[in-house]
Amino acid sequence: MDGNLNALTTVFTEFYYWVTVVFMFLIHVGFCMYEVGASRARNHMHTLMKNIMIIPLVTVTFFFFGWWIYWAFPNFPFWGGLDTEAGAANLPWADTMATNLGDRITGVFWAAFLLFSWTAASIVSGSVIERIRSSALWVHAVMIGSVWWIIDAAWGWHYGGWMVRILGYHDAYASGVIHAIAGGYALGVIMVLGPRLGKFAKDGTPRDIPPHNPWLLTIGIFLIYTGFWGFYAACNVPAISPEAIDGQITGVTWTATNIYLAPTTLSAITFNFLMSLSGGLMAAYVISKGDAFWTFSGGLAGIITASAGNDLYHPIQAMIIAAIGVVIVYKLHYWVERRFKLDDAVGAVAVHGYAGFVGLVISGFVLWGVPSSPYEGYATINPIGQITGAVIMFFVLGFLPGWALAKIQSSMGVLRIPEEVELQGLDYAEHHAYEDAKAAIIEADKQELAARAGAAAK
Amino acid sequence: MSTNGYTSWAVDLAEVGPIYPFQGYEVLMVIVGVVFWIGWHRIQFVREGEHLEKARHTGDEEKVKAQLERY
To answer: For chain B, which ranges sit under pLDDT 70?
Structure first.
């Protein structure tokens, strides 16, 4: 770090991303609480462990190859070869991927992206609760968390990605690159996995499977909101000079930027985060007729819908776009459920997938003609580019890989748990030692109590 | 054509102010926003009134007693 200003900027940026990572951890805590709250008591531990183990599995694979993909794939395979030069510093054996006084930023930047990876995997995890094998889900977690989403990030969430350059793709806070892809992936998996036993009556009418612990679920989604703040901050570069951007921007005024290094402000995203949350909550309350869980999820879906353009929208635009998105998402969820008999246990396909898709499409019209990048020769934002981007995110990189892998797992008989186990509950089947130990100690205590009562009676 | 007035970032940021789309329509946007807000209250008042009117005729005496006991 030569020069005080450079040192200060580096240390500030290093600390900035580090704090976002801590905040984003709450997203995962929230997902765990939401899933456990939504599952029935007989599946608690299994549901929790299924999600918790996403953390280490996605972390190590993201270290081994996920992070390298981001830097090597911006133009691969359709618009150029692998960028081995940029990728080299991000290989697991590179000295920059370790304790290194010459590189103070790679670790925290890697971690910020890694937390997005956990989120992508966790979105899929929620929709498949109470009937998927953990071993099958964990392979999906690695694939969505360390392969598919990071390919889409390289293509559409990188200052040099081909989607940004050629399509004018703009997705500042990841409507598509996290949410549409993860929702699409979840849809592919649940199509093969099938619904939980009892979800549909014999005549095909869907039954509600209410959450067993609404309070845990409520706290869970509020933690997700909280972590989302960290996510928004992590999507920005906090302070950078035009010289460092090395694009078309003139003058010497430093700025915060989005992931594409195009200018925005923390003030803008603070306005828009809260206004889109509010628009989502208000619309969801009305459309769901006051259903608590749809209202909470609607807040999230509102933010997700507006996220593609929340670096640029006016706050009222963010609010209205969020509200429109939530109405579409709610209607689409129930239409798909009835039409295709799909069991999306926590509404993840809708809240993340449909909201992300709709958000990209809307942003193409509202931001039509706005520059997607500070670099010369890039396409500006446009509806065709955004719709194409939404299809790539939801279907090409999300739905198809999820469906294909689930098909392979299903044909090998390793996707779904046996019906007997589903009925008796996964906690009994997989944690029977705990259940047996609990039953044994309760029985022992009862016998002790009876013996004492007998002795006292004599 | 650009909805926010900028077709490239070849500008000096010291001279740039608002960058949101549809500048000049702020008052209209506020009107739309306020209609959304007031409309929400209107829908909510009507719906809650209907719900409460329906609910006051659905109470079963035994179930109400059970609710009181439940606290």
So the answer is: none
- From the CB of residue A424, how many other CB atoms can be counted at a distance below 10 Å? 13
User: What is the C-alpha separation between A340 and A91, in angstroms, rounded?
Assistant: 43
Q: Which residues on chain A are in Cβ contact (under 8 Å) with B1?
A: 368-369
pLDDT at A227: 97
Contact (CB<8Å) B21/A373: no
pLDDT band at A431 (very low <50, low <70, confident <90, very high): low
pLDDT band at A2 (very low <50, low <70, confident <90, very high): low
Q: Into how many domains does chain B fold?
A: 1
Domain-embedded: residue A245? no
Residue A192 included in any domain: yes
Q: How many CB pairs under 8 A join A and B?
A: 95
Helix (H, G, I), strand (E, B) or coil at A343: coil
Does the beta-carbon distance from B10 to A253 stay under 8 Å?
Answer: no
The arithmetic mean of pLDDT across residues A403-417, rounded, is: 98
Residue B4 CA from chain centroid, whole number: 25
List CB contacts (< 8 A) between B9 and chain A: 247-249, 262-263, 371, 373-374
CB contact under 8 A, A250 and B6: no
Give the total number of structural domains in chain A: 2
Instruction: Encode pLDDT of A336-394 as tens digits.
Output: 999 999 999 999 999 999 999 999 999 999 999 999 999 999 999 999 999 999 999 99
Q: What is the pLDDT of residues A203-259, one digit of tens each?
A: 999 999 999 999 999 999 999 999 999 999 999 999 999 999 999 999 999 999 999
pLDDT over 70 (residue A429): no
Please name the residue of chain B whose CA is at the shortest distance from the CA of residue A376.
B8
Whether A457 maps to a domain, the answer reads no
Q: How far apart are CA B64 and CA A129, in angstroms?
A: 36
**Domain with B54 in it:** 24-70
- Note the pLDDT of residue A430: 62
Q: What is the ipTM of this complex?
A: 0.93
Chain A: nearest CA to B58, how far in angstroms?
Answer: 19
> Nearest Cβ partner of B30 from A251, A255, A316?
A316
Distances from the Cα of A343 to the Cα of A184, A196, A209, B53, angstroms: 14, 7, 10, 35
Element (DSSP H or E) covering residue A257: strand A255-257
Task: Check CB contact under 8 Å for A319 and B36.
Answer: yes
Q: Which of B8, B9, B37 to mutate to test the interface with A (most CBs of A within 10 A)?
A: B9
**What distances in angstroms separate CA A341 from CA A26, A129, A377, one per listed residue?**
33, 16, 46
Give me the residues of B, 6-35, that contact A with CB < 8 A: 6-16, 19-22, 26, 29-30, 32-33
If 0-12 CB within 10 Å is exposed, 13-18 middle and 19+ buried, where does residue A433 land? Answer: exposed
Residue A1 has pLDDT above 60, yes or no: no
Residue A435: pLDDT over 80: no
CB contact under 8 A, A250 and B26: no
B41 interfacial to chain A (CB closer than 8 Å): no
Question: Which domain does A386 fall in, by range?
Answer: 4-240+253-414
